[in-house]
Specification:
- There is one protein chain.
- By secondary structure, the protein is an alpha+beta fold.
- It has a domain at 19-59 and 69-237 and 360-393.
- Helix content is 35%, strand content 17%.
- It is built from 18 helices and 19 strands.
- A seven-stranded antiparallel sheet has the order 1-18-17-13-12-9-8. Strands 7-4-3-11-10-2-19 form a seven-stranded antiparallel sheet.
- A hairpin with a 5-residue loop joins strand 10 (350-357) and strand 11 (363-371).
- Helix 13 (260-272) crosses helix 14, helix 13 crosses helix 16 and helix 14 crosses helix 18.
Length: 537
Amino acid sequence: MLSSTRGRRGMAVAPHALAAQSALDILREGGNALEAMIAAAATIAVVYPHMNSIGGDSFWMIHIPGQTPGAIDACGAAAQRASIDWYRQHGVIDAIPFRGGLAANTVAGTVSGWGAAQSLSRRALRGRIPLSRLLADAIYYADQGVPLTLSQAANTAKKAGELRALPGYAKTFLDRGKVPKTGSLFVQKRLASTLKRIAEAGADDYYRGDLARSIAKDLAQIGSPVTLADLNAHRARLTDPLRIKHSTGTLYNTRPPTQGLVSLLMLGILDQLQVKRTGPMSPEYVHLCVEAAKQAFAVRDRYIEDPRYMSIDAQRLLDRGFVRKLASKIRRRHAAPWGEPGRTGNGPGDTVWLGVIDDAGRAVSFIQSIYHEFGCGAVLDKTGINWQNRGCSFSLDQFAINALVPGKKPFHTLNPALAVLKDGRTMVYGSMGGDGQPQNQAAVFTRIVNFGMDPQAAVNAPRWLLGRTWGQSTESLKLESRFEMGLAHSLMEWGHEVEILDPYDETVGHAGAIVRHKSGALEGGADPRSDGGVAAY
């Protein structure tokens, strides 16, 4: 039986154990949670490259005890050349391609987030650990190699046929044209050099220095519309998060263009429905969570995009009256329609969620992504950066929500969660996996807070997924086979279209959580569906 990892002075959780260890080493050296997360984010970008990279985006939730939580938006916008007319001139009429240079149409913001976090650390927390130390593990693993995970090997095998002809893919991810074996050393010399440059010159060099000029040339070679001017214009932003009052405390998540609203709406709806009166493995519990997801997704698909283009402030959609109205639409033993034409939810998404809490109780919930497995599939020649394809989620219909406009930020499934509870606990939690992210957050939160499970048990417990995520495009309700069959039969009787997955299936995502108790005690859980771990001292 898996048990929560417990600690007192600091804790980190990540979907790859080496990233959690990188964070812990910084905490042991006197670093704060922000510094530790930069180290973990850099390491995870190297050791889990099929799911994230320094060519992607990221979002941060940050809590300093006694202060209102804040957030960092490190999401890049669409290139100034990336217009609907530009795609038509390139023969693209219906939808932006998922792969190749035409899919690489947004600036990669994650490195700017590292820079913003380091600046905040120095200004607010007196952080003093240099960037060269924070990136040291990542540089070593890129330069000297890291044992290939089963997850990377499996995804490479699955996607090699689709991606091998794209610029730089085979050179980076294949071994003399073949899929490398699990456990073999995976070396990324060009990426190591790029990380060394960032460590020496600072994160800003990625956008306004020699590195930016090299990246811009590489992007031009693969046919991306992103230019040096687009890189120059990018800045990470400090933002105020969304929040919702819950019977157990206050829950926080990131604003649009993320779907943080969805995660908070789900938990608000479940609170209204008093989900705590069900059981964490009951059909009633899964049904209510699924129906809450449907209501929240409907709000998402109507409203969420770059907030500059939204018709309403997302915080207003968390008003108690509106949440109560959504909850009233749910029937306890009857599934609402799902998967109707016109739904605008995102397709498969590859992402990593990480959490850190330090000895002073400062907490970071962090998420970093390149969208689909291996992003756009192209790897930049000089820098070794695998660029994201987040912008393929834009619509080429000028009247659609999330329509492509130059300089506009794409809709993001990414959303890191944080809770400050009335009993004195602080909790960071999150997950990867497209439409599965808010559902996994609901599962982890309710199992810990409403049902009293420890974090590892909550993360380990069988999960469900309504809709699409990485590796899946069907809209069915997917259940891990560790649920009792009686649960599946009840859900089918209530109108759900059920599909059974493997016992520990990556389809339902990689989740994680850390809880800090009022006493200062820490406990955390990492997902056995990943290569993750919890590191503590």
